[in-house]
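In the laboratory, one determines a bound structure by crystallizing the protein with its ligand and collecting diffraction data. In a computational setting the workflow is compressed into a single prediction: the sequence and the ligand go in, and a structural description comes out. We illustrate the idea with zinc ion.
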Amino acid sequence: MHVERVAFDTHTLTAGRPLEGAEYQQGTLYGYEVREYLLAKWGRACAYCGATGVPLNIDHIHPRSRGGSDRVSNLVVACISCNQVKDDRLVEEFLSGKPKLLARIRAHAKAPLRDAAAAQSTRWALWRRLDQRLPVHTASGGRTKWNRTRAGLPKSHTLDALCAGKLDTVTETVQTVLVAGCAGRGTHCRTRTDAHGFPRLRLPRTKQFFGFATGDLVRAVVPAGKKAGTHTGRVAVRATGKFNITTLHGTVQGIHHRHVRLLQRADGYAYTITKEQ
Ligand SMILES: [Zn+2]
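The predicted complex, in C-alpha cell form:
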C-alpha cells in the first residue's frame, strides 16, 4: 500500500542540495518537491506583493546571475509581474522603499518550514494505523503531482490516489470508483430537543425494527400502489414498520418492511459506486 504521508519531502529539501541547472522548472521530482514546499512556505502568495490566485514563479532572492544560490533558503514564489520587474536586480534595490517587507522576506526565507506544518496530523495517524497491519510505503504529495503530470492525467482525487508513491507508468485508468464516506452510527441521545433545549420527543431504545436498522443499505421492491417500483438506498426505520428509503433520486416514504431486502448492514460508512469524471 502506498500512502501520501506528507505534502512534500522536507528531508531531501533540508539536506540542502542545490537545484541543478533549471531543474526547478523542468519537471523533475526534486523540482516538484521544491515547488510544493515553496508554495506552502509562502502561503501560495507572491512574496513581494502578496498577490494570491495568480500563477506563481520561483524567484531567487539573491539573483543567480549575481552568484545567488539555488538553495530553498534563497527561493521565494513571486507573481509573474514581480518576477519580471525584479529580473536580475538585487532584492535591496527592488524593495528599496520597503525596508520592513525586505526584512520580513529575509527572515521568512531563512526559517525552515517546520515538519509539523508540512504534514497534516491525520495523514500521520492514518499511516501509523495502516503500518501496524500492512506493508506500507510512504511518499510525498510532490511525488504524486510529478507522477500525475508525467502520466498526463487530469487532476482528480481518484487519479491522485493512483499516482501516490513510486510509479513507472500508468497503462490503464479507472472507470468506476468505490467511495467510502463517513455516515456515522447514529446517536446515543434518546431525545430530540426543541429550540429551548427541552425534550420534544423520545426516540426508541432499540436500534432495529423488523430486522433493519437506520443506515442499512436496502432494496425495496414494491409490487403495486403509488410507490410501486424498485427503490435502492439507505433506510430509516420506524417502529410502525413503514420505512423511509433515501435513494439517488430522493426519499421515498412509508415503504412497508415486508417489501424490503437487506443489501448491506450499516457499519458507519456509506459506500457508493460512482463513475470517474
Ligand atoms: Zn507580486
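The longest helix spans residues 29-41. Keep in mind that any predicted model is a hypothesis to be tested, not a measurement.
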